[in-house]
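Long-time lurker, first post. I've been practising inverse folding by hand and with some scripts of my own, and I keep getting stuck on stretches where the structure tokens seem ambiguous. Below is the full token string for one chain I'm working on. Before anyone asks, I'm not after the true native sequence, just a reasonable design that respects the backbone. If someone could post their per-position residues I'd love to compare against what I wrote down in my notebook.
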């Protein structure tokens, strides 16, 4: 009997392996489909593509659609979605969210985060398992209180730049403040994270910000279109070229700053702070996040590689300015729409600062309790991250249903924060909900603007501090009005919750 050619044997082996893999994947798909039959979900649900054909393409329409689904299912403990062949459970009740976020096992981000990997790598936001635990342990000391105090000076300086810019808008009618605040937050994160002045506020157009917006939009669109999940299809028939163009802008920016810092210091054990932007003795002592991670070592004494450092810097550049800028904008919108709350905020600021225009201190920020309530209530109504997800690493029970391992959990803070069980008249803006006497009554998993549990946001103290500094600076000088209705905001719930046409406010000097 004649032997088969080696190529034919190899080809047969490959086809056998592919067939086995397909059989395994199909079997896993069928098992999950059957296991989740009882869970309430959308209709129609088609094999393989799931509910994907129901989803609207624009960020605004898709977000409204998702919120409508959760409103219709408010009385259900959870709902399910199939995005392509991947099953999701959608959670928007404190009791079901707690099952996932309080677990020490369910820490992996959902499959949808895979599309952030080209941009953010597997840094603190997107990493899993032992890598995440090691990075979290390594980076946590960089957010120590004493280090945050050093960042306060930068926040005050950049807030003043914003105020001087806005002097030109006083009494001129409504203007869109969203981008101005985003540029201010970008200046702050660049200087605190990388000790790099980029003067974003003095530039009317930022290529870096446009690249962030473009990348966010592309990632979000791809997440809900399973036919573009394979890289080949996305690059060939999708928007792969635009994705790569935005990615190049983002990585070039951070790589340049890291290289300058790395080679300037010679990667020495202690970073030299004598660059051209740091002339005063005070500034020479200031440590940036980049300096801290350049010098950080893991348990074995090993330092992070340049690739590791870029992952974390890209992550903090994205998470450290976009989310905070959105939160400040939403707070301004709500204060400008509610004169009584604005009056209370002004009175508190007058009690703390009087007529002084001095920079805010940490002691000042601690006293601004009503402003903190305003920020929290703004984050309740308009959470900066309206949706996030986890992949279940083990089978668990949620809301009376058994959920198989490998299913994705989609958590929707925007819907969760509107649960009338914990927030009466949930659409109303009431900062008093978060006063000391009232906040103790709120289930900690009913309000999660910074997530919750072991994998909560590492930078939440930094974010709240920055929000207090910028908002207090604005409100000490200006009286704010806005006339946009909620419907006119046209919410776009992509990676960050934004109004489609910005936030339009009127500024007037406060009468002293």
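-- Answer (accepted) --
I ran through it position by position. Result:
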């Amino acid at each position: 009997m004649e032997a088969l050619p080696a190529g034919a044997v190899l080809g047969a082996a490959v086809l056998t392996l592919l067939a086995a893999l397909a059989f395994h994947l199909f079997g896993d798909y069928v098992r999950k489909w059957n296991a989740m039959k009882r869970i309430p979900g959308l209709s129609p649900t088609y094999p393989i593509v799931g509910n994907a054909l129901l989803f609207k393409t624009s960020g605004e329409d898709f977000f409204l659609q998702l919120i409508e689904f959760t409103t219709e299912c408010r009385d259900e403990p959870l709902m399910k979605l199939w995005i392509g062949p991947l099953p999701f459970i959608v959670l928007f009740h404190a009791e079901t969210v707690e099952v996932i976020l309080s677990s020490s096992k369910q820490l992996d981000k959902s499959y949808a985060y895979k599309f952030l990997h080209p941009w953010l790598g597997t840094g603190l936001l997107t990493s899993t398992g032992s890598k995440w635990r090691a990075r979290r342990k390594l980076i946590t000391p960089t957010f120590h209180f004493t280090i945050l105090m050093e960042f306060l000076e930068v926040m005050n300086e950049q807030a003043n730049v914003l105020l001087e810019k806005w002097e030109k808008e006083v009494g001129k009618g409504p203007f869109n403040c969203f981008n101005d605040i985003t540029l201010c937050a970008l200046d702050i994160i660049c200087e605190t994270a990388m000790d790099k002045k980029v003067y974003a506020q003095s530039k009317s157009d930022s290529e870096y910000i446009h690249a962030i917006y473009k990348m966010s939009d592309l990632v979000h669109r791809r997440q809900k279109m399973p036919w573009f999940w394979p890289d080949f299809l996305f690059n060939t028939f999708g928007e792969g070229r635009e994705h790569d163009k935005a990615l190049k802008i983002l990585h070039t920016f951070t790589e340049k700053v890291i290289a300058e810092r790395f080679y300037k210091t010679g990667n020495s054990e202690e970073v030299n702070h004598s660059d051209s932007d740091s002339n005063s003795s005070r500034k020479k002592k200031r440590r940036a996040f980049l300096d801290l991670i350049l010098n950080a070592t893991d348990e074995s004494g090993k330092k992070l590689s340049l690739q590791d450092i870029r992952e974390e810097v890209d992550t903090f550049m994205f998470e450290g300015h976009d989310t905070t800028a959105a939160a400040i904008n939403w707070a301004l919108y709500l204060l400008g729409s509610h004169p009584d709350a604005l009056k209370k905020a002004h009175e508190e600021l007058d009690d703390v600062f009087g007529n002084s225009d001095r920079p805010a201190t940490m002691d000042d920020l601690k006293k601004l309790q009503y402003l903190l309530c305003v920020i929290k209530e703004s984050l309740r109504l308009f959470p900066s991250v309206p949706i996030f997800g986890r992949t279940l690493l083990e089978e668990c029970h949620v809301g009376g249903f058994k959920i198989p391992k490998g299913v994705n959990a989609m958590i929707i803070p925007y819907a969760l924060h509107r649960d009338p069980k914990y927030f009466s008249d949930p659409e109303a803006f009431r900062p008093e909900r978060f006063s000391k006497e009232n906040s103790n009554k709120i289930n900690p998993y009913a309000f999660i603007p910074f997530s919750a549990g072991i994998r909560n946001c590492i930078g939440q103290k930094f974010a709240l501090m920055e929000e207090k500094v910028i908002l207090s600076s604005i409100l000490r000088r200006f009286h704010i009005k806005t006339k946009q209705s909620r419907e006119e905001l046209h919410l776009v719930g992509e990676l960050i919750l934004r109004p489609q046409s910005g936030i339009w406010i009127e500024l007037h000097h406060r009468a002293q």
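A couple of notes from the structure itself: DSSP finds 21 helices and eleven strands in the chain. The radius of gyration is 24 Å. Happy to go over any region you disagree with.
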